Each structure stands twice: as C-alpha cells, then as structure tokens.
Amino acid sequence: MTEKAWLAKYPERIKKEVDIPNIPLQQILRETTEKFPDNNALSFYGRKMSYQELYKLSLAFSSALQQIGVQKGDRVAMMLPNCPQYVIAYYGILQAGAIVTQLSPMLVERELEYILKDSGAETIVVFDALYPRAKAVQALTNVKNVIVASLQPSGQEFTPDRSFEAFLSEGNGNVVPVEFEPEHDVAVLQYTGGTTGRSKGAMLTHRNILANVIQSYEFFSGEFEIGKERALTVIPLFHVFGMTSGMNLSIYTAAENILLPRFDLEEVLNTIKQEQPTTFPGVPTMYVALTNHPRAEEYGLNSIRICNSGSAPMPVELMREFEGKTGAKILEGYGLSEASPTTHCNPPFADRKPGSVGIGMPSTEYKIVDLATGTEEVRVGELGEVIIKGPQIMKGYWNMPEETANTLRDGWLYTGDIAKVDEDGYLYIVDRKKDMIIASGFNVYPRDVEEVLYEHPSVQEAVVIGVPDPYRGEDIKAVIVLKAGKTATAEEMIKYCRENMSAYKVPRIIEFRSELPKTGVGKILRRALREESVKK
Predict the structure, then answer these.
(1) What is the mean pLDDT of residues 161-166?
(2) Quick check: helix, strand or coil at residue 140?
(3) Tens digits of per-residue pLDDT, 515-536?
C-alpha cells in the first residue's frame, strides 16, 4: 500500500521487517547485564542500581515466588507506582514463568476486586499506602499472598504479610528452570476498557512485547547510543506505553532509567537539571506543564534529544513551542494496549506531519477499511476504521472469546478508531474509539463512570462525554437527570464519584437537565451532547 512510498525513500533508515529472537522477554535483562554489568540500570531520587544488582534482585524475587508455590501461568498482580521494586518484581515474575497482571494504583476497591477476580491472581505486590485497599478486598478474591513495598525503607512489618525486602531475603536466586514458548506464553495481562463496560485483560505474549521493543529500537536506531542513554520515566509503568517505551526499551538499550513515581512539575524539572536525561517518553499534558513553566530553560531541558508522545493527540503549537525551548524532537505516535502498544510513530529520519501519528513500525501492516463491513480497503484520504497486523498484536482477551473474535479477525486487529492515510502512508486518527475520553493521557470509558452514577439514589439518567480542554486534552462532563422529587448539587455528585472510582475518571463538570436528547427508540444521543459542548 502507500507505505511503499516511505520504504523506498528511506531504505537505509527503516526496516520493513525485523527479526525477533525466539526468547522469553526477561532474557533481555540477562543479556544486557552480561554486556553492561556495571552500567546504571535505575536511578531513583539519586539512588543508583547497576544492571548486575537489578538482575540479581530479580532472580531473588523469582526464586521467592517459586518457594511460595507460584508456577508457570499463575497471575501475579502488581499495584505500584514507578519505583525500583516495580522493575525487580516485573522481571522476577516473568522469570518464574508467571504472568504480570498490571494494576493502576488509582483503582478503587470495586475496580480492584473485579480485576483480581477476573485474573484469578493469588499473589499481589502492593504499595504500602494502598495496602488497606488490597486487604479490604482480599477475602472476596483468590489472593493468598500480599507483598508490601515502600518507597522509603521503614522497617515496618505488615503482619501476617511480607514486606518487599523480607520477601527478597527469602529468595536464594536459584530459579527452577521454566520452559517457555514465547509466541504462545502470556507475559502480561494488560487491562483495558471495553464496549461492554467491563475491563478486558489483553493477553500480551513474550513475543508480542519483545517484538514491540525491537520494533521501537529499529525505528529509533539512528537516535539511540547503546549503553549511553538516560531515560526519564515519569509515565506510569503500569500503563502499557510506560512499560514498553519507559522500562523495557531502556533495558534493551542498556539505558539508565530515571524513575519518578508521579508527575510533579518542580520535581521533574529538578530531576532534569540533576540527571540530564537524553530521552523522555511522555503525554501532552506533561509537555504543556514543562513548556509553560516561566523558567523552564534554567533547568537544562536541552539535554533531552528525543521525546516520544503518546496516549493523546499532541497540539501542533505545543510541539513547536516545546521544541523551540529544548531543541528536542517530539515524535507523536499511536498505539493501544492490544498492540503492546506501539503501531505508528512519526519518524525521526523523515518528515513529521502535523496532526499525523506517523508511519507504521517495522513488521507492521495497516489499512483503512470501510465502516459498514470492515472488509473493503478504502482509497487514500477516505475515512474508515484502521486495522493493524503485526507481531506485537495481542493473543486475545483473557476469558473473553466473543470479544476476542470481534476484535481479532483474520489476523487483523480492528481498533475501532476512525482514520485516514495520505499518499505517503502517514496515518491520521480522526476520531478515537467511539465514546472513549482521553483526559491527561488516561483512557476513560464513559460507561465505567455512568454505571457508578446510576447507583446514586437520586440519579434517573446519566451520560458522560468528553469536552475539549487545552491542558488535559479533554475534561469529563456528566449530564444528569434527577429522579422526581430528588435533589443533588454538583459538589455532592463529584464527592460521590471520588468515593467510588479512580481519581482520573471523576467528572470535573456536572450539568443537570430535565431530559436528555434521544433517538426515536430511546437511545441517548451522546454525540449531540458532545457537539453542544463544543459550540459553547
């Protein structure tokens, strides 16, 4: 298709296909350790950890898991912010043959309970501040083992559960060998929202994730110097973008990974000044904050050469302003959890087209098909659904055969995103998944929020939409019809939402109406509400 245009134009810089070794994902840590044992692997508030230390601790964690009975295929949940324990546990779980089940620290009890039940996890590694939340739902799940990690060693014991340090000390590093089939064995369950309102566990195999790491490296190969880069990773590692672009790509390239548990502007700026990172994967809201700081140039932002932006559209003016202040390139890309996640990116070696998410990664096929049947490829410039094929595409959804069959058809991933391509093969996402809201880089599925609103005793009807916001990308707005005789204020509804859902899902705007616009058959016209909000 049109990809041939840029393949012919830049044959020396882009590979159409990449070789993916038949190895389990965790082997990249071992191989990097063998080549660069003394290089810094992690930096966390000035504390450094070499690759040799990281590998040794991951083996200790792995052997400790095996000693408590964790076997190949078991799910081990992780509910942690960015910290060294995250990387240690992630690679330790993989080494034991288990499946990493990534959980957002922002999950409230009802959400946590659902995912733990759905995955069947019997072990969880949890941040100490979230320990009460995990314990509150433990009896309702299969969880038997709780391992508690602290960002600062406190010596506190969580009886009868284990601290992370105590658990590590139980491991002798002698991991019982596990036979892997990288193409079939699931490495990570990455939970994502769905049209049914239930979170779905995308099954990412060892090969899927490794392929995306290698694809990313090959795409940026002219920009990376093995063993010399320093990546600032403040995007969450539990997010698939942070997992691949922040953690796994750093390990594959023997980079020093500078971890921060949250985006605090002053902390990020001071870290840049002290650590001088060379790469920075982020989301647009982060670039907005950095660009608008009155003294941004004083913090040495010009150390950053490459910024890959994902999770939300990047405003063109923001891109230009940030690049003008730093000299860095912002390369906007596109992906989704089901693709490990990256499928497209603006190339560092060719034209970057404003508004485009770039060209396909190596070994990635894509086309735009008609919306009616999903079988006919449309012409250049015409709108349709983008579908994708490649080694990074998931195995399917955990215990959801119907959802899997609907999303994976004849080897193609049907993204549900409306897009077009130009004559050079550059992809333009015109409309995100039908109703999904992207607020500060987080995917918010309206039905998740609406189900909580409908449980409020005063709510008769509710619909949730995204409205444009110059900083967050989109704000979450709830339009509510109250039951007859009932009253509620916007402040009360927001307080209720904060108590019953993750913070990033909470509507910031509440509007009360006497009725909602509907079709003749009674279906709420969500699109009409969005259009009204845009016009205001």
Answers:
(1) 92
(2) coil
(3) 988 754 446 778 788 888 776 6
Q: Does residue 77 contact residue 103 with C-beta atoms inside 8 Å?
A: yes
* Residue 15 pLDDT class (50, 70, 90 cuts): low
Closest CA to 434 of 530, 326, 315: 530
Which residues on adjacent β-strands are paired with residue 146? 124
Record the tokens describing residue 202, joined without a space.
């995308």
Tokens 């009460």, residue located: 132
How much is the average pLDDT of 471-484? 91
Q: Please report where in the chains the tokens 């909602």 appear, as a residue.
A: 516
Q: Which of 512, 436, 426 is nearest to 6 (CA)?
A: 426
pLDDT at 194: 41
Tell me the β-bridge partners of 186.
205
Q: Give Cα separations from 281 to 158, 209, 234 (angstroms).
A: 35, 17, 8
Write down the number of H helices and E strands in the chain.
17, 26
Distance CA(447)–CA(459), nearest Å, equals 15
pLDDT level of residue 414 (50, 70, 90 thresholds): very high
Q: Which of 354, 344, 369, 363 is nearest to 420 (CA)?
A: 369
For residues 372 and 356, give the distance between their C-alpha atoms in angstroms, rounded to a whole number.
Answer: 24
Q: What is the structure's pLDDT at 98?
A: 98
Query: Would you call 17 exposed, middle or buried from its count of C-beta atoms within 10 A (0-12, 13-18, 19+)?
Result: exposed
Q: Which amino acid is at 185?
A: D
DSSP 394-417: -SEETT-HHHHHHHEETTEEEEEE
Please, what is the Cα angle at 100 between 94 and 104, to 5 degrees? Answer: 145
Q: Give me 75's structure tokens.
A: 């799910």
**For residue 439, which of 91, 76, 106 has the smallest C-alpha distance?**
106
Name the nearest CA neighbour of 417 among 403, 436, 440: 436
Q: CA gyration radius for the chain?
A: 23
Judge whether residue 312 has pLDDT over 70. Answer: no
The first and second tokens of residue 22, run together, are 């038949």
Instruction: State the sign of the Cα–Cα–Cα–Cα dihedral 209, 210, 212, 217.
Output: positive
Per DSSP, 128 falls in state G
Instruction: Please state the three-class secondary structure of 11-63 as a single string.
Output: CCCCCCCCCCCCCCCCHHHHHHHHHCCCCEEEEECCEEEEHHHHHHHHHHHHH
Distances 81 to 78, 105, 151 between C-alpha atoms, Å: 9, 7, 9
Which domains are assigned to the chain? 26-181 (3.40.50.980), 437-535 (3.30.300.30)
